Amino acid sequence: MSEDKLTPRKEDFSEWYNQIVLRAEMADYAPVRGCMVVRPYGWALWENIQQALDRRFKATGHVNAAFPLFIPMSFLEKEKEHVKGFSPELAVVTIGGGEKLEEPLVVRPTSETIIGYMYSKWIKSYRDLPVLINQWGNVVRWELRTRLFLRTLEFYWQEGHTAHASEQEAREETRRMLDVYADFALNEAAVPVIEGIKSQSEKFAGASMSLSIEAMMGDTRALQAGTSHFLGQNFAKAFNIQFLDPSNELQLAWTTSWGFSTRFIGAIIMTHGDDQGLILPPRLAPLQVVLVPIYKNDAERGGVMPVVERIARELAAFRLKVDDRTEVTPGFKFNDWEMRGVPLRIEIGPKDVEKGTVAVARRDIPGKAGKAFLPQENLAANVERLLAEIQVSMLQTATAFRDSHIFDPKNYAELTEVVQNGWAFSWWCEEDACETKVKEDTKATIRCIPFDQPDGTGHCIVCGKEAKRKVYFAKAY
């Protein structure tokens, strides 16, 4: 890792982000433009995200499966809105084994079509429902403008696909899984999110309704952090997903899909990071604690290392690393682990050995304010307490930042100013023309129509007509 300082966030947020991803060894650029290599540190974070989500999926009755990477082109053409929405982003295989294929194959951008086909084979009776399947995998979307984690040609994700006997059950599933994402974001990632409905222009291609969780990044831009789609009977009609109901009558199934990707790693970086590097939430951090022994010579090392090794054993329940590198200074190590966002650093030198103490430094509180001395006795309990405090503090900090950058503009002119450095929470008449005007004038879009709405009605911030719901306007990634 370079000892050069990061570009400050206020100076160039985009460059700060790119530098942090590379220097913290989260990811690197692949030889194919727009693709990324996720490095071990970044993948360890993704594994922790996977495990936290997978537990939640299984607790709600879902099971994992795997579906093919290649999808016949004709499958995507069965659902007109779906193929129209994805056609500019498709990677298509026309040659296989040295010969031209009879039918081109699409490298999956999402799996509604192939899974719809399989569900039509598996579902015959109401007794076969619901089908609650999730898959972990990768997808390819030929993006023009890419950025590590946030938008790449190939990315990793999970996509859930369910089929139900009734519309109500499918709608409940759509909301349930969005709530799962929100619970994960808040309680594991310390990222405060707003749940809501996407406008018609922003919904998933082929869906009847799309829900999303929206998060504010450190530059006040919005990031769509997870989506859940009520597909209605659109894909059931396209792929003939039918079942015999209890009256022995043939019915079309109701389906949903929902997805959450490595883009959320970008959300964690941009929500919590500072000018020293990453700040990772303890529940997800690849390393929760780093132990740094400090000594000047072999004699001091001989006194320090046995204590370090003992403490490492006592803290074995945590994700921990002992940094015993001899080729770099303690100062370099401190900066290195700060860059990587390790929540808690523990330093042990000769004086600590003598006093029976350790020096601890919290990553979420920079400088001297985040440092303290703790007794070696009962250290595991103190570490557990500190990690819990860091987790809570990170959510509070991120929430306070978000809330201080959400505004309620009084008129359209004020809205155009507000969205340059924040979000506008405003009434909207729900007409496309007003949504389009905001986008053309400011580049801000409707992030969601939040579930949590004020009482009564108001007037559209754009045209002044009566409006029943408020929405969040913001510039987004």
The whole-angstrom Rg is: 25 Å
N-end to C-end Cα span: 28 Å
Shape-level CATH architecture of the largest domain: 2-Layer Sandwich
Compute the average pLDDT: 96
What fold name stands as the CATH topology of the largest domain?
BirA Bifunctional Protein, domain 2
Biggest pleated-sheet summary:
11 strands, mixed
Count of spatially separate domains? 3
Q: Under the CATH scheme, which class of the largest domain?
A: Alpha Beta
Q: What's the overall geometry?
A: globular
Enumerate how many helices there are, as a single number.
14
CATH superfamily of the largest domain: Bira Bifunctional Protein, Domain 2
Structural class: alpha+beta
Give the number of DSSP strands. 25
Strand order across the biggest sheet?
3-7-8-14-11-10-9-22-25-21-20
| Uncertain regions spanning at least 5 consecutive residues | none
How much of the sequence lies in strands comes to 25-35%
What does this structure look like?
This protein has helices at residues 13-23, 40-59, 73-76, 80-86, 112-122, 167-187, 234-239, 263-272, 298-314, 330-339, 350-355, 379-404, 412-418, 432-442, and strands at residues 27-29, 36-38, 63-64, 70-72, 91-96, 99-107, 131-140, 154-164, 193-197, 209-216, 222-232, 242-244, 250-252, 254-261, 289-293, 320-322, 344-348, 357-362, 371-375, 406-407, 423-428, 445-450, 458-459, 466-467, 469-474. With 477 residues, it is an alpha+beta fold. The chain folds into three domains: 13-272, BirA Bifunctional Protein, domain 2; 289-384, 3-Layer(aba) Sandwich (Rossmann fold); 407-474, Translation Initiation Factor IF3 (2-Layer Sandwich), CATH 3.30.110.30. A hairpin with a 5-residue loop joins strand 10 (209-216) and strand 11. The radius of gyration is 25 Å and the shape is globular. The two termini are 28 Å apart. The model has no long low-confidence stretch (mean pLDDT 96).
